[in-house]
Amino acid sequence: MAQTNPKLTTVDPVWQRICTEAEQAIRDEPLIGGFVHSSVLHHSSLENALAYRISMKLASSEMSDQMLREIADRAYNAEPALADAARADIVAIFDRDPACLRFLQPLLFFKGFQAIQAFRLGNFLWKEGRKDLAYYVQMRVSEIFGVDVHPGATIGKGLMIDHAHSIVIGETAVVGDNVSMLHSVTLGGTGKEEEDRHPKIGDGVLIGAGAHVLGNISIGHCSRIAAGSVVLDDVEPMKTVAGVPAKIVGEAGCSQPSVTMDQLLVGCGGCK
C-alpha cells in the first residue's frame, strides 16, 4: 500500500496566502511590522494565529491574554473544525465583501470575523460544559466587538457578517452554512419561554441590515430578507421577504443570494 506523504497533509493554502500577504504588508508599510509579525508571521499555523488574536482582543484585567491563549490553544488542538470554519469564513469574506482585498484583512482588522471566531471558542467551551467560562467569552465579545452571540447558538461555516455592529443571536438559533448578514441583525425570541425559541436560518440565506427574525421559525435555504424587515413566520426556500411584518414579495432572484449579495428587490443582478 502506498504511503501518504506527510508533507501533503500539512499544506494550508489559506494560511500560506495570509503569510505571503503579511510579508507584503510589511514591505508596503514598515510601521505595522511589529503588529503583523506578532499577529501572523510569528506563528506556524492559522490555529496558533487565531488563538493569539482572540486572546489579545478578549484579554482584560479580569483574565490575562496568557490564560485565554492557553484556553484557545487547547480548543484548537482538540477540535480541528474550529480552524476549518475560520478558513471557510475568510474565503467567504474575500469572495463577498468588496472591501476585502486580501485574506489577511479579516484576521487583522475585521471585527465580524474576529467576533465569530471568538464565539466559536465560547461554543466549544459551552459544549464541554464550561458554561461560566463560555459566558465570560460572550461578555467580552459583546464589550469589544458589539456582537452578542449566545455561546449555545449553532453557526455554520462560510459566514460573512459585513460591518458586524449590533448583531444579536440567541441561544437556540441555528445559522446554516454560507450565510451572509449585514449589521444590526437580530435572531431573537418573542417571549419568556426557555426552550427552543430562536430562528433556524437555512444555508445560503442573505439577511439585510437591521432585519429582525423572531421566534422559533424556519428561513428556507437561499432566501433573502430585505433590510429593516421583521420576520415572524416561516419563509419557504428561495424566496424574498420584506416589510413589517415581512411578507413574501417574490423569488430570491438567483440561486445563491448570500454570495451575490444583491439586496435589490428587483432581482439578483440578472443571475438566474
Automatic annotation (TrEMBL):
Its EC number is 2.3.1.30. It is an enzyme of class 2 (transferase). The keyword Repeat applies. InterPro entries: Hexapep, Hexapep_transf_CS, LbH_SAT, Ser_AcTrfase_N, Ser_AcTrfase_N_sf, Ser_O-AcTrfase, Serine_acetyltransferase, Trimer_LpxA-like_sf. Coiled coil: none annotated. It comes from the Bacteria. Pfam families: Hexapep, SATase_N. Keywords: Acyltransferase, Amino-acid biosynthesis, Repeat, Transferase. One of its GO terms (molecular function) is serine O-acetyltransferase activity. Pathway: Amino-acid biosynthesis; L-cysteine biosynthesis; L-cysteine from L-serine: step 1/2. It catalyses: L-serine + acetyl-CoA = O-acetyl-L-serine + CoA. GO terms for biological process: cysteine biosynthetic process from serine. SUPFAM superfamilies: Trimeric LpxA-like enzymes. GO terms for cellular component: cytoplasm. Belongs to the transferase hexapeptide repeat family. PANTHER family: SERINE ACETYLTRANSFERASE. NCBIfam families: cysE, EPS_EpsC. This is Serine acetyltransferase. It comes from Octadecabacter temperatus. The lineage of its organism: Bacteria, Pseudomonadati, Pseudomonadota, Alphaproteobacteria, Rhodobacterales. The gene is cysE.
